[in-house]
C-alpha cells in the first residue's frame, strides 16, 4: 500500500492513524517510494523535543535538485516546469521546460562554484519574481550552498541585518525589479545594505529593468556573461539528510528576526507530500501560487513542492492590481490554471472591486483554490468560493508557518469536506494539540487553547541560525516537550480546527508576519520619540493593520503631528520596509506597564479596536491611571 496520496476520507483516517501509530513506517515508506537517494537512512526519525533536537532520515544521502529536476528528465524533459508571467502583460510569457531548467540550474551552479562558493556557504538572494530567482535557489541546492532569500521589499537595513546574521559570502540580485507601475532599484539597496556588512565577497547581478547601477570593481559582476560561458552540466553535491538547505527569516516577538534553518531530506519529503495531497495534484495540472518566493509559501509551493512532483508552476512578477484588478483572472484564463493559491488579503482587496473584473474571464480550468497566511474571514471565504471557485472548487484553507516548512492543517482537496474559516483537519503525520494556561493538554472537542504540535514532522525547522537556545526558548519551553506555534485555535464538535490568530506579539498584516519589536525600534530611532508600542487592529483588507502608541520626548518644541506621523512612517520604511508602516498613530503620555516593566499590550489592543468594555485584570499595572488617558485620546 502506498501512502503518498490520500484518495478519500476513509483513506485519510487510515493514513492518519497509521502516521500516528507508526510514524517511522509511514514516513519511511513515503520517503523510500517517491524520492531518489544516494544512500538510505538508518533511522527515520531521532529526536528529543525538549532539547529541540530533531533529525529525520539520519545518515541518508541525497541532493534535492536530483529529485526536483534530474529524475524528471527522461519522462518529462519537454514538459513545462516553470511558466514565467511578466509584470507587463504585453511582454511574452516564458515557458521553461524541465530540460531548460536543468540547463539553467547547472549553469548557475557552475558560476557559483567558479566564484568560490562551496558546500555550506551562505548565499543571499535578493531578486524580483523572475525565473532566475527559482534557478538561484536550485543552483545553491545543487552545490550544497545554503540559500537565504530575502524578500525584495525589505529595506537596506533589514537586508543588512539578515546578511550579517547568516554571514553570507555572496549576494545574487538584479539591477531592479518591476512591480506594477513601479521599478525598484534593488542593486542600489544592496549597495547600501553592504556598507554595514563585511562577509560578502561577490555580488552577481541579473539585468532586468536596465536601471543604472554602480558596479564595484572586483566585487560586482553581471551574471549573464558568466552564465553564457558556463558549462550546462554540473554534478550535484552529495548532501546529508540533515545538511541545511536554506535559511529563511521570520519575525520574532522580540528583537532581531529569526533565521529559521530548514534541512534537506525532511523538507523535501514534507513539501512534496503536502503539495500532492492538499492540492490533489495531477500530471497535467498548471499550479499557481501567488506568493513571493521571498516567503516560505513561495519556497515550498512555487519552487520545491511543485518541482519535486514534476509539476508546472507559475512565477508571476507583478501585482494583482496592475494594469488593473483583473490581472489574476486574466492569468488564470491565459495559462489555464488548475490550482490557484493566494492570501486572504488579496482576496479581500479584489472582492472590493467591481465583479466585472472577474466576470470578463473564464475561470473554468480551476479545480482547487487555496488560502494561506492569515485567518480567512467568512465573507472573503464565500466570495472566493462563489466567484473564483464557482462553488465547485474546494477551498483549501491551509494553516502552517515558516517554521513548519509545509502545510500542517488543511482540507485535502476532494477528500476533506470544507467548512468556511476552518483549516479543518491535520495532515497525516501532524499531531496538533490544544493546551490550556496551566500547560495541560485539552482533551475533547468544542474547546479553545494554544496550538502546539506534539510529535515532530519531517519539515520542521531544525534551529535558528546561530542561536539554538533561542530556538528552544521560543518553540519548546512554553509547553515543555511540545512545539508551540504562537497561534490560538479552537476545535469544533467534529474535531475541525479553526485558527483564531497569534497569541504573542507578532501581527499579521496583509499576510506578512511582523514582529512588533523591530518596528518599535525603528520608531524609537526618530529623534522626537521617547518610546512606542505597536499593536494590530482589524482592517477590512489587510486583516490586521498597525496602530502605534508613541510617547514624544519632552523638548518643549511643538511639532506638527501630521508631519511627525509621516516622518515616523518613513523611518519604518527605511529600517524595516514599507509593509510595516502604521495605519494609525496616537501620541500618548505613557504606556500601561507592569511592575516588571512589561507593556500590557492586551489593553492597547482593546483600545485600538475601540473596545473599552473590559480590560481584564489590571492589578499588576504600575500606572493604571494611564488607561483613561489613552482611551480618551483614541476617540
Ligand atoms: O498566525 C498564523 C498565520 O501565519 C503565521 C505564520 O506566518 P509565516 O511564518 O509568515 O507563514 C505564512 C505562510 C505559511 C501563523 O502562525 N497563518 C498562516 N496560515 C494561516 C494562518 N492563520 C490562519 N489561517 C491560516 N490558514
Automatic annotation (TrEMBL):
Annotated AMP-dependent synthetase/ligase domain residues: 70-462
The protein's enzyme class: ligase
UniProt keywords, alphabetically: Acetylation, ATP-binding, Ligase, Nucleotide-binding
Boundaries of every AMP-binding enzyme C-terminal domain copy: 519-598
Family note: Belongs to the ATP-dependent AMP-binding enzyme family.
Residue span(s) of domain Acetyl-coenzyme A synthetase N-terminal: 12-68
Protein name: Acetate--CoA ligase
CDD domains with a match to the protein in the record: ACS
Documented EC number(s): 6.2.1.1
InterPro entries assigned to the protein according to its UniProt record, in alphabetical order: Ac_CoA_lig (IPR011904), ACAS_N (IPR032387), AMP-bd_C (IPR025110), AMP-bd_C_sf (IPR045851), AMP-binding_CS (IPR020845), AMP-dep_synth/lig_dom (IPR000873), ANL_N_sf (IPR042099)
A GO term, aspect molecular function: acetate-CoA ligase activity
Species whose genome carries this gene: Flavobacterium frigidarium
Amino acid at each position: 500500500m502506498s501512502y503518498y496520496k490520500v484518495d478519500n476520507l476513509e483513506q485519510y483516517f487510515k493514513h492518519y492513524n497509521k502516521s500516528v501509530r507508526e510514524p517511522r513506517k509511514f514516513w519511511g515508506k513515503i520517503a523510500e517510494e517517491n524520492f531518489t537517494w544516494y544512500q538510505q537512512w538508518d533511522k527515520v526519525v531521532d529526536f528529543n523535543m525538549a532539547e529541540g533536537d530533531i533529525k529525520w532520515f539520519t545518515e541518508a544521502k541525497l541532493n534535492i535538485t536530483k529529485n526536483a529536476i534530474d529524475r524528471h528528465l527522461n519522462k518529462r524533459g519537454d514538459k513545462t516546469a516553470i511558466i514565467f508571467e511578466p509584470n507587463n502583460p504585453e511582454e511574452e510569457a516564458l515557458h521553461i521546460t524541465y530540460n531548460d531548467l536543468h540547463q539553467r540550474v547547472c549553469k548557475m551552479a557552475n558560476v557559483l562554484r567558479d566564484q568560490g562558493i562551496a558546500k555550506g556557504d551562505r548565499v543571499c538572494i535578493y531578486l524580483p519574481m523572475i525565473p532566475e530567482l527559482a534557478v538561484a535557489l536550485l543552483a545553491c541546492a545543487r552545490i550544497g550552498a545554503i540559500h537565504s532569500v530575502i524578500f525584495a521589499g525589505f529595506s537596506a537595513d533589514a537586508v543588512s541585518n539578515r546578511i550579517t546574521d547568516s554571514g553570507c559570502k555572496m549576494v545574487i540580485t538584479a539591477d531592479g525589479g518591476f512591480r506594477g507601475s513601479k521599478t525598484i532599484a534593488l542593486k542600489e539597496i544592496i549597495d547600501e545594505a553592504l556598507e554595514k556588512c563585511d562577509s560578502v565577497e561577490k555580488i552577481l547581478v541579473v539585468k532586468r529593468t536596465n536601471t543604472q547601477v554602480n558596479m564595484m570593481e572586483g566585487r560586482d559582476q553581471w551574471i549573464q556573461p558568466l552564465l553564457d560561458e558556463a558549462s550546462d552540466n554540473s554534478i550535484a553535491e552529495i548532501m546529508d539528510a540533515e545538511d541545511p538547505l536554506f535559511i529563511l527569516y521570520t519575525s520574532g516577538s522580540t528583537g532581531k528576526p529569526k533565521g529559521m534553518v530548514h534541512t534537506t531530506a525532511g523538507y523535501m519529503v514534507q513539501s512534496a507530500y503536502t503539495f500532492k495531497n492538499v492540492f490533489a495534484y495531477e500530471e497535467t495540472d498548471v499550479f499557481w501560487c501567488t506568493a513571493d518566493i521571498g516567503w516560505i509559501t513561495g519556497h515550498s509551493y512555487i519552487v520545491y513542492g511543485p518541482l519535486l512532483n514534476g509539476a508546472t508552476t507559475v512565477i508571476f512578477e507583478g501585482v494583482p492590481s496592475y494594469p488593473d484588478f483583473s490581472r489574476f483572472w486574466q492569468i488564470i484564463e491565459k495559462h489555464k490554471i488548475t490550482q490557484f493559491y493566494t492570501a486572504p488579503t488579496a482576496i479581500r482587496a479584489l472582492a472590493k472591486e467591481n465583479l466585472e473584473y472577474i466576470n470578463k474571464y473564464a475561470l473554468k480550468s480551476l479545480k482547487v483554490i487555496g488560502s494561506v497566511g492569515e485567518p480567512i474571514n467568512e465573507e472573503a471565504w464565500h466570495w472566493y468560493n462563489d466567484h473564483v471557485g464557482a462553488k465547485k472548487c474546494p477551498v483549501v484553507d491551509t494553516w502552517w508557518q515558516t517554521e513548519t516548512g509545509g502545510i500542517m492543517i488543511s482540507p485535502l482537496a476532494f477528500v476533506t469536506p470544507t467548512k468556511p474559516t476552518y483549516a479543518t483537519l491535520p495532515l497525516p503525520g501532524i499531531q496538533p494539540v490544544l493546551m490550556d494556561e496551566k500547560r495541560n493538554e485539552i482533551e475533547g472537542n468544542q474547546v479553545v487553547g494554544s496550538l502546539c504540535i506534539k510529535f515532530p514532522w519531517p519539515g520542521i525547522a531544525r534551529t535558528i541560525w546561530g542561536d539554538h537556545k533561542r530556538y528552544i526558548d521560543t518553540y519548546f519551553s512554553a509547553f515543555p516537550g511540545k512545539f508551540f506555534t504562537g497561534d490560538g485555535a479552537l476545535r469544533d464538535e467534529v474535531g475541525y480546527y479553526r485558527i483564531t490568530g497569534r497569541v504573542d506579539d507578532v501581527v499579521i498584516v496583509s499576510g506578512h508576519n511582523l514582529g512588533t519589536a523591530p518596528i518599535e525600534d525603528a520608531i524609537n530611532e526618530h529623534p522626537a520619540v521617547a518610546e512606542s508600542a505597536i499593536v494590530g487592529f482589524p482592517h477590512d483588507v489587510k486583516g490586521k493593520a498597525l496602530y502605534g502608541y508613541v510617547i514624544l520626548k519632552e523638548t518643549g518644541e511643538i511639532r506638527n503631528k501630521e508631519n511627525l506621523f509621516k516622518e515616523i512612517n518613513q523611518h519604518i520604511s527605511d529600517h524595516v520596509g514599507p509593509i510595516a508602516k502604521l495605519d494609525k498613530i496616537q501620541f500618548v503620555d505613557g504606556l500601561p506597564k507592569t511592575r516588571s516593566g512589561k507593556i500590557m499590550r492586551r489593553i492597547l489592543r482593546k483600545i485600538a479596536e475601540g473596545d473599552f468594555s473590559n480590560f481584564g485584570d489590571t492589578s499588576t499595572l504600575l500606572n493604571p491611571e494611564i488607561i483613561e488617558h489613552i482611551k480618551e485620546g483614541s476617540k
